[in-house]
Design goal:
single chain, 8-stranded mixed sheet, 797 residues, binds oxalyl-coenzyme A
């Protein structure tokens, strides 16, 4: 068995990054992926990143608009297990690839649709331009710049996030269709094909799930700022002008950092009152930041890096992408692969980010002219028994949730592991959070904790006691999956390493997340998301020649959690064949490479990836963010028609905003505008023309004139935007302590029976008794375990 998805056929009819990369994840795990390209399009016409996301695929030239091509497409659809598309709704309708139409003709097919913008929103028919998606999703508005205005993102993070979420949803849908492979209670479902929608807005909502969770009275950092939100968790400039990210996310870590900095006195500053969380209150954090900034400015980066690291405080230098790529951490994780391309010579591309111990999926080739095959010759042979294993059963009305019947144990903390369980719960699995007596330290961030644990069950088991461990082993026997993101060494200490667990339950799939992987100097050090942003070059690329700019999105936590969820689902699919589980390993390093996958492709002559500036608003005068009298607007003209429409809207005489117009009327060279710099005379004229409008008015007016445009929403705008409510991106949950909370509803929309999680996050030990009773433990036995402190339960108030 070489790959988990051996024999699974994927038709990749995508046009942009997200679809191609979702299919890549399946190809990496052995799926037979056929990528359709319009005739005349070369394998690398999609840019250097295609070397990564079209690897391990066969390429087919196919003209969907021509009768012969359309007939061939229909034949391929009938032979495929999965179709991946990422076009706009109009384009799908035109080509007969809309979910309803395709599913009606091919009820067993999984239709994965990855539009950048959610089709239900008014901007669903806008072009798939990251500038627009980042604007409406609040990614730009919340990406703090140093003077508080929105930033255009230079890395297509939404598309990368969407790709791995999409792959994960397909992986769940395949299990739902083909059965998850018997063994425990109620495995599999009678599900057949599905239509699954994962938009770029699902991805940005995932990466902002913590900040989009909202409850009355919740305090958030008042000024995001380009360097980070609070004194304990932000960038500081050192005396050698290099930047260091201080990642003291918890109070104990912050106290240690203050010790290193000899700055305990900040705890007595006004409003701090000895509590780190108070520094999030308006006006309280800024003077503390100033004190820490002054201290960091006294010594060079290496000095602080050494002291903080020796004291166990997570920290990282802001590096360039090149430094990260060339360093030993990326290499030791197998993420820098060198291949000889038949046309380009040596190329470097990201490696496999998810490693399955038993089914590694070893096949590897790059997209080149040699990867083309004739569409007529594809899938003409009888269907392989891809779905061998448990029979899918006949459809019985609406299919069950894709992962119904699967039990997942999550021993992780913070976000990078738990987001994997968040996804598995979203797809219908039963998730049990297993906490030690100390509990998950992330619980101090109450709303964020809710975001990643809603609807889960909770048991407290002390794995450092013999009875606790014995009880835990019984729990492991009942489970399909276990995952965590603890530090290296912890697993062996508490007996949760794969070798120990596999001896107890050979069917178990174990997901293992670490920060830095093994065998490199960082392996033993703790990590949080922004440290990866700093080391990987993400924030240096965004800041350009200016100060580095942190993303407020949990790019790597969500990336890593999604990667491990995908690997787990692939391993469950492989388990259907022989009933055996395996270990799935991924790292935050792997995620940091995949979340800049295209940027990390290297070959001779490749154009340099985009670089921002710490006040970066876009790349041309007609493709950038503009301030309005209230709010901002994203203008995304990329064709001569768009530019001409912009001139018509704002040319001399029209002046809809009451401003001076572009000037020159018909004399304005629309095509030249497409190349006009983002800051210059043309941009100034557009700024003046928009100055009399609000962001929403400007967006409406431009869109009506035929210029792609959207309002730039901030967090508040996103939370209250009626279209997001209509698109079902958010929902409400009643939390016993916090009251009604707004939360991100789910990370994929499904045809048929979607899971609707309405329960809050559990307190520690909320389900201890129920879970143990389910394992067959008597009341007396449970009482003994409680008395011995081997397990704990939540005392009802
Ligand atoms: C996230 C961490 C910094 C958290 O560090 P810690 O709080 O110190 O936890 P550790 O993982 O190191 O270890 C957990 C400790 O709890 C103990 N432990 C755990 N479970 C149990 C049970 N059930 N019973 C008894 N003891 C237990 C375990 O033995 C360890 O103690 P000892 O035996 O005494 O050692 C680290 O786990 C880490 O770097 N993980 C890898 C990277 C990662 O996932 N980072 C979080 C990203 S999320 C993020 O960035 C964000 O939230 O933002």
């Amino acid at each position: 068995m070489s790959g988990a998805y051996d024999g699974v056929r994927v038709l990749d009819a995508s046009g942009a990054i997200a679809g191609a990369m979702a299919a890549m994840y399946l190809a990496d795990q052995g799926a037979d992926v056929v990528r359709l390209l319009p005739p005349g399009r070369g394998p690398l016409d999609g840019g250097p990143g295609a070397l990564c996301w079209d690897r391990n695929k066969r390429l087919c030239a196919l003209d969907r608009a021509a009768p012969a091509g359309a007939a061939q497409l229909r034949r391929l659809l009938a032979a495929a297990d999965v179709l991946v598309v990422d076009d706009t709704p109009d384009e799908l309708d035109r080509d007969g690839l809309d979910p309803d139409g395709v599913r009606a003709a091919h009820p067993d097919l999984i239709h994965l649709w990855l539009p950048l913008l959610a089709p239900a929103a008014p901007w669903g028919r806008l072009p798939a331009d990251p500038l627009l998606a980042d604007a409406v999703s609040s990614a730009s508005g919340e990406h703090g710049s140093y003077d508080g205005h929105p930033l255009a993102l230079v890395t297509p993070i939404a598309a990368y996030g969407q790709a791995i979420l999409g792959a994960t949803a397909v992986a769940a849908a395949l299990l739902g269709r083909d059965g998850a492979g018997g063994g425990g209670a109620g495995r599999g479902s009678a599900g057949r094909g599905r239509a699954v929608l994962v938009s770029g807005l699902h991805a940005t909502a995932a990466m902002q799930a913590a900040s989009l969770t909202d409850a009355e009275g919740i305090i958030r950092a008042s000024q995001p700022g380009g360097g980070g939100s609070s004194p304990n968790y932000r960038l500081y400039r050192c005396s050698d002008d290099r930047w260091l990210y201080l990642g003291a996310l918890t109070e104990p870590l912050f106290l240690t950092a203050l010790d290193v900095l000899d700055l305990f006195e900040v705890l007595t500053m006004p409003g701090v009152d000895g509590s780190m969380l108070n520094m999030l209150r308006p006006g309280v954090g800024a003077p503390v930041v100033a004190r820490l900034a002054a201290r960091f400015a006294e010594r060079p980066l290496a000095h602080w890096e050494r002291l903080l690291t020796d004291a166990g405080v997570p920290n990282a230098p802001a590096q360039t992408r090149d430094e990260w790529w060339a360093g030993e951490v990326v290499a030791s994780n197998g993420m820098r692969r060198v291949h000889v391309h038949p046309e380009l010579g040596p190329v470097e591309i990201p490696g496999d980010p998810v490693r399955l111990s038993r089914t590694p999926g070893t096949f590897f080739h790059l997209p080149s002219t040699q990867a083309f095959v004739d569409a007529a010759a594809v899938w003409t042979d009888p269907r392989p028994a891809a779905a061998a294993g448990e029979p899918a059963g006949e459809p019985t009305g609406e299919p069950a949730a894709p992962l119904a019947g699967l039990r997942v144990l999550d021993l992780g903390s913070f976000v990078a592991g738990p987001f994997g369980s968040t996804l598995l719960a979203d797809y219908g699995a039963e998730v049990i959070k297993v906490e030690g007596p100390g509990g998950d330290p992330y619980r101090i961030y109450t709303v964020s904790f809710l975001a990643f644990h809603k609807g889960q069950a909770d048991i407290v088991v002390d794995l450092k006691t013999p009875e606790g461990r014995e009880t835990f082993h019984d729990l492991v026997r009942s489970a399909d999956v276990l995952l965590d993101n603890v530090r290296p060494g912890v697993r062996e200490r508490i007996g949760t390493d794969y070798a120990t667990l596999a001896a107890i339950n050979p069917r178990l799939v174990r997901g293992t997340v670490t920060a830095w992987g093994t065998g490199n100097p960082l392996s033993a050090t703790p990590a949080f998301d922004p440290l990866l942003q700093a080391r990987s070059g993400l924030i240096t690329a965004q800041g350009g020649a200016g100060a580095p700019c942190q993303s407020a999105m949990l790019v790597h936590d969500i990336g890593t959690g999604s990667l491990v969820a995908f690997g787990i689902l692939a391993a469950l699919y492989a388990r259907r064949r022989d009933g055996l589980g395996q270990e799935v390993v991924t790292t935050m390093v792997n995620s940091s490479v995949m979340m800049q996958a295209g940027e990390f492709v290297h070959h001779a002559g490749r154009p340099a990836p985009a670089v921002g500036g710490h006040e970066y608003v876009g790349d041309t005068a007609v493709h950038r963010l503009y301030p309005c009298k209230e709010g901002w607007v994203a203008v995304a003209a990329t064709t001569p028609e768009h530019a001409a429409a912009l001139v018509a809207a704002f040319g001399e005489g029209s002046e809809p905003g009451g401003g001076p117009g572009l000037g020159g009327g018909s004399e304005v060279d629309a095509v030249a505008l497409l190349r006009a710099p983002a800051r210059g005379p043309a941009a100034e004229r557009i700024t003046a023309a928009l100055a009399g409008l609000t962001g929403a008015e400007a967006a409406g007016l431009l869109a009506a004139a035929g210029v792609p445009a959207a309002p730039v929403l901030d967090r508040g705008g996103f939370l209250t935007d009626p279209w997001f409510a209509a698109a079902g991106i958010l929902t409400r949950i009643d939390e016993p302590d916090l009251g009604p909370c707004t939360v991100v509803r789910r990370y994929a929309d499904w045809s048929g029976n979607p899971v609707e999680i309405t329960a809050a996050a559990p307190p520690p030990g909320a389900d201890t008794r129920r879970i143990l009773a389910g394992l067959g433990y008597s009341d007396d036995r449970i009482a003994e375990l409680l008395a011995a402190g081997a397990v704990r339960e939540h005392a009802a108030p």
